[in-house]
Design goal:
The chain has 425 residues and is an alpha/beta fold. The chain folds into two domains: 113 residues, Aspartate Aminotransferase, domain 1, CATH 3.90.1150.10; 257 residues, Type I PLP-dependent aspartate aminotransferase-like (Major domain) (Aspartate Aminotransferase, domain 2, 3-Layer(aba) Sandwich), CATH 3.40.640.10. α10 runs parallel beside α12. The protein is built from twelve helices and 16 strands. The strands form four sheets. It has a seven-stranded mixed sheet, sandwiched between helices. A four-stranded mixed sheet has the order 1-2-3-14.
Length: 425
């Protein structure tokens, strides 16, 4: 293990992050399970990239079959990308009828921001102050906690609205958040930069996935449209039926975005991203920017993405996400009654967790305690993480085939770990 860590540092450079105090050397995956180099079996309660399960046979077979046949870029004609985009856009509202294929969600978000400039002629970009949308030079500036120390003189084009927090901020209908967005729009107009777009994850997952009623984002969408800007919904984490109630999280929010960006789970681990938008936005972008991606939409990547989508729909994994999410919330609420350290419980289908606090009255975040729990769960062969503004909320986001027996193992283990861990600041 130490040899691997030393080699990483020497070959990849310093500060390349790993999970856990004792990193896991994973060598194999299947379904919702992973195995380390010593043969230990881990329950994966974190990875949304293998959306329909690690090494899903349908996806693996599709990749192999297409790789044996042909793989070229999209400057040659090939029906694979057209068939996939037709199927993909069929899951959206009618007006979202055209797509670009990329390799990552970062690339998709980068394109989406350029689309906003092309449509509005302005450059003012708003995100929340506790989020992450990727790591290109442009997109990395959307994340206050991950922004580059040095940049290319673009920081003036980014402003941040206070992220929603259903545990600490009273905003039941979304009007408070809409007002915060309006404040930043007004600031852009006053500065002469002008407002181009708001980009949000419709479940606000990095912000801690606050509890929100359906349609919560509608007041904000109205503010954005009234100001002449574009609404970009980043569904890299929240999409492809993860929220359970809807196929796309923006549908749960009751809005039709101008652009929807995609990535991570899109091809079950094969590097595929993309975006879906209206034809008039696509035309404006294509006329203003010369864009080509060598690997985006290649036949092998498209075959993987197509197989993932078929598997997701054929196995009715959206319904499974809704069922497991409901059961998970019930189990977490039972633990919240048992342990004072659990201040709040949240769930959006196959994404659920609990926020740890030192005091339920003050709601002081128990950040160090969250780290302890995550590492103890790793020792018990359960893989999960944390997120939110204070990084004190469990991030439980397993592959979509996660079943009742897996949930029971997770919750039974978490209960035991909490009962044997002293709360600490």
């Amino acid at each position: 293990m130490l040899d691997l860590i030393d080699r990483r540092r020497d070959l990849l450079g310093p500060n390349v992050s790993t999970f856990y105090k004792d990193p896991v050397h994973i060598v194999r995956g299947e379904g919702v399970w992973m195995w380390d180099a010593e043969g230990n079996k881990y329950l994966d309660c974190y990875n949304n990239v293998p959306h329909v399960g690690h090494c899903n046979p349908r996806v693996v077979d599709a990749i192999c079959e297409q790789a044996r046949t042909l793989n070229v870029h999209t400057r040659y004609l090939h029906e694979g990308i057209l068939n996939y985009v037709e199927k993909l856009t069929g899951t959206f509202a009618d007006e979202l009828d055209t797509a670009i294929m990329t390799c990552t969600g970062s690339e998709a978000n980068d394109i989406a921001l350029r689309m906003a400039e092309a449509m509005t002629g302005k450059r003012g970009i708003i995100s929340t102050d506790a989020t992450y949308h990727g790591n290109t030079t442009l997109v990395s500036n959307l994340s206050t906690g991950n922004a580059p120390a040095v940049g290319f003189g673009v920081k003036q084009y980014f402003r941040f609205a206070e992220a929603p927090d259903s545990y600490r901020i009273d905003d039941p209908d979304g009007t408070r958040f809409a007002a915060k967005v309006q404040e930043q729009i007004d600031a852009f107009e006053k500065d002469g930069i002008g407002f181009a777009t708001l980009i949000v994850c419709p479940l606000f997952l990095n912000e801690g996935f606050p509890a929100q009623k359906e349609g919560w984002l509608q007041p904000t969408a109205e503010v954005v449209r009234k100001a002449g800007g574009l609404l970009i919904c980043d569904e890299v984490q929240s999409g492809f039926a993860r929220c359970g109630s809807h196929f796309w999280a923006h549908q749960k929010q009751g809005v039709v975005p101008d652009v929807v960006t995609l990535g991570k789970p899109m091809a079950n681990g094969h590097p595929v991203g993309g975006l879906v938008t209206r034809s008039e936005i696509m035309s404006e972008f294509r006329n203003n920017f010369k864009y080509f991606n060598t690997f985006g939409g290649n036949p092998v990547s498209v075959a993987a993405a197509n197989a993932m989508l078929d598997e997701l729909q054929d196995k009715k994994l959206q319904a499974n996400a809704a069922k497991i999410g409901k059961m998970a919330k019930e189990r977490l609420l039972e633990m919240a009654d048992k342990y004072d350290v659990i201040g709040d419980v949240r769930e959006s289908g196959m994404c659920f967790g609990a926020e740890f606090v030192l005091d339920k009255e003050t709601k002081e975040p128990a950040v160090a305690f969250a780290d302890v729990i995550i590492n103890k769960m790793r020792e018990r062969k359960i893989i999960l993480s944390k997120l939110g503004r204070h990084k004190n909320t469990l991030k439980i986001r397993p592959p979509m085939p996660f079943g009742e027996e897996h949930l029971d193992l997770l919750m039974t283990t978490l209960d035991d770990v909490l009962s044997n861990t002293k709360v600490q600041a």
